[in-house]
Amino acid sequence: TRPGRIAGAALRALRRKPYRKGPRAPLRVRPRAGFDTLFAPVRAALEARGVTFALDEALTGIVRHGDGFGVVTDAATRRADVVVGALPLDTLHRAAFGTGSGLRSLDLMTLYVSAGWLDPGCGNVLFNFHRDGRWKRLTVYSRLYDPPPDGRENFAVEITLPPSAAADPQAAFADLA
Fold first, then answer.
1. CA dihedral over 117, 121, 127, 130, signed as positive or negative
2. Taking the model in full, what pTM does it have?
């Protein structure tokens, strides 16, 4: 809405030096050795700065405590200045207000598929924004890691499940195919 500001921002961006110097680091999605290889050093660095990790606890509430919050689990109440949630919205709403939000989340089913051939131009990750087919995201792992010894492509495809529907892998695969 402010052409002068937009033009100024564009000129400043053009004058900046590139962020990255040298070749780009190789793409790493999921390490073969497991996530601990990737996240253990990150966790250690955060813990050294005072971050506490509490795993395998059920969230039962989020309450106001003075100028901060209390995150209540089945094991303890932890105080924090800020709460950032990556849970389904209805779960957060229940924790904060004690009632459901009326929002529904859809469940996902993941199929792991092996294929004799995939078009080399299709990329590593595909998204389905079309109404045809229930699948939503397809990740071609054989292109992100070393090629499999049998030469076949392999990928995972995430498929939304209708509300209250049971998972039916055969029907989902037929739909994908």
1. negative
2. 0.54
